[in-house]
Amino acid sequence: CPIVWLTIVAVQLVLAGAAVIVFVHVGVLDPQQLPGEVADQIGKLPFPSAQSETERNIYIGIGAVLAVAAVIVFLLILVLFTRINMAIKVIQQAAKAIRAMPAMFIIPLVVWVIIMGVFAYWVVIFLFLASAGEFSAAESRYVWDDTLRYMILYHLFGLLWTRAFLSAVSELMIAGSVSQWYFPQKGSLSFPVLAAVKNTLRYHLGSAAFGSFIIAVVEMIRVLFNYFCAQMKAANQDNPVVKCMICCVNCCLACLERFINYLNRNAYIQVAIHGVSFCKGAKDGFSLLLRNCLRVAAITPISSVFVGLGKIFITAVTAFLGALIMTGFQVSQVANADPFVVIIMILIGGTVGASFMSVYSMAIDTVFQCYCMDEEWGSGSTSSEFKSFMKEQEQGTDSEMQDRQ
């Protein structure tokens, strides 16, 4: 998949180029050591000059961090070359599924619109609830009784659960579409996306509701914990023990939420493929990944980086194009674009990037589970090219590990 390698090379070039630009502008690197055209282009770039020695040292530190990051990325490419190829092949199969079913991109966009509508409704109801208490002129705010507080908490939990539920429905639809594409003998449908939508709405809403309920409970605990933390910080502003405890507990809750999200994601794939209950799907999905833990270790980090870079790339390009349009397509004036417009473009680009790459992410996970299941079943749905490539890469990885030992 050339896109993945182009993305990796682009990240390497951006890090190295940014380090060179910073070093040239602060005087650490002599522009005469660079090719003439490169030095001229760097000189035309808008770059804030250092007004003091402190600012110059800050710029030098930023350049050093960029240079070290570029070296680390280069070394990781050399060390993880085989694993990157394995991840690329899985991403390539996911890309084939997406090309065969481009309608999948409509699913997260529709879900996002619904979530925005739900959020707007939630804000309106929250304003009604917040203003339902008695106004205290002395405190200049509304005073809530216990009943009203419980209603607001109930309303907040409803928002968290609804958002998680809609996201789960979207993941089930995408997983169902990709699994039907991977195992065509299970139906050979002409419109797998429509079939996945129908199956999700007809059979799997209970699984989505149960899995999203667990996520909503954890998120609600985090919200309440952060609220009480704010109260504790106000009372103990300079207590380092309290700050350390709050940081540790918050970190543990965040890790728990991510772990449950990971379990739910793989459970939804099993539910979409086999039509089982959520609990059985979570058990089967976790067992499948446990039996293929080495493959998971090889593919998951690379695919996660690819998805993350895709989101960043889409957001950055959208913001840059917006700034370029606002400045009349004058590249030298991009830095002077209206910050408000750039922020709006970043939000739009981030939303589009997250929606676009969420389809990729779910398709990658589904293809990987389908490949592992097909290997255990021996159904022969996996293409011979994909299967032989994965075997060759795994054998190459095993031989490298043996040589190191």
Structure description:
This protein is mostly helical. Helix content is 81%, strand content 1%. It contains 13 helices and two strands; from the N terminus they run H-H-H-H-H-E-E-H-H-H-H-H-H-H-H. It has helices at 2-25, 36-44, 53-79, 81-100, 106-130, 146-182, 192-203, 205-235, 240-274, 278-291, 293-326, 339-377, 384-404, and strands at 134-136, 141-143. The chain has a two-stranded antiparallel ribbon. Helix 8 packs antiparallel against helix 9 (240-274). Mean pLDDT is 81; it is low at 400-405.
Net shape: globular
Structural class: mainly alpha
**N-to-C CA distance:** 31 Å
Helical coverage, percent range: over 70%
β-strand number: 2
Largest sheet: 2 strands, antiparallel
SSE order, as H and E?
Answer: HHHHHEEHHHHHHHH
Radius of gyration: 26 Å
For the residues shown, what is the average pLDDT? Answer: 81
Give the DSSP E fraction (strand runs of 2 or more residues). Answer: under 5%
Number of helices: 13
Model regions low in confidence, pLDDT < 50 over at least 5 residues: 400-405
